[in-house]
Amino acid sequence: MRDALEHLITQIKNSEEYTRYSREKERVKQHPWLKSRLDEFRRINFELQNTIDGEEQFDKLQEFELEYEEFQRDPLVSAFLEAENDLCRMIQSINFEIVDALDFE
Q: Which of 33, 37, 38, 55 is the most buried (most CB within 10 A)?
């Protein structure tokens, strides 16, 4: 089992999604003020999506999007967020396939 997991991790690290994410992360790190703001953006986004439900969540997310709309237009920010999202989707897909194959409820 451990060998299979290590192989999967290696495959993920060799994927285009992870390579792009790593590259964009390094680009953002070259601008500490931008990285700090990006970390704040990601933290708030995570909290909004995981702590509030229903219509209030929709309203808060709309406010959040408007507040950070210009920030997200920054080419470094948008490239990083897109790469991060693609990597997360890949990992989520792997997780779904494992759960589905195991008929885990």
A: 38
User: Can you give the residue ranges of every domain in the chain?
Assistant: 2-101
Residue type, 86: D
pLDDT tens, position by position, 2-40: 999 999 999 999 999 999 999 999 999 999 999 999 999
Number of CB atoms found within 10 A of residue 36's CB: 10
CATH architecture designation of domain 2-101: Up-down Bundle (1.20)
3-state secondary structure of 85: helix
- Report the distance separating Cα 90 and Cα 12, nearest Å: 9
What distances in angstroms separate CA 102 from CA 32, 58, 92, 93, 96, one per listed residue? 43, 34, 15, 14, 10
Question: Could you count the other beta carbons within 10 Å of the beta carbon of residue 9?
Answer: 11
Distance CA 60, CA 100 (A): 33
Place of tokens 């999604």: 17
